[in-house]
Amino acid sequence: MRQLNTSFPLAVYADSRQGGRRENQDSCAWGDTPAGFLVTVCDGMGGGPSGKEASSLAVHALLQYIQEHGAEEKDRSKLMREAIENANKVILDAVEEDSSKKGMGTTLTALLINDQSAIVAHMGDSRVYQFRRGFKHFRTNDHSLVFAKLRDHEIKSEE
Question: What predicted TM-score, i.e. pTM, was given to this entire model?
């Protein structure tokens, strides 16, 4: 786990673990933007082609979009949606340029925080946690079959 630097009065950390896979397809980007401090982690879909590339394209497109458009007077939730749609378009454009990348994709988890609020966006099974007073709190739930089974009490977390 490494601490990320920001001018905001925050302690922000990012962590990436390879798990049982051959390749870690995680990518991470962060920075101060006109809309607040942004941190994003994406994990390429390991079963598909070019997962590492998809995650890298997504984090950089998201950060760049918010840096370029964050000073505009608009709702920060709308800004985040637009940035994610742009990141998706960047990935789709890469597939259009090279058909061997068809099916590439990534999870996306992002936190945009300023003095007024924190906005969390996520797709897939990358997570946001909040550590407070020595306890870890989930701030997102996975979009996965396993999490759905846990939620519906079909399996236990140990399984």
Answer: 0.78
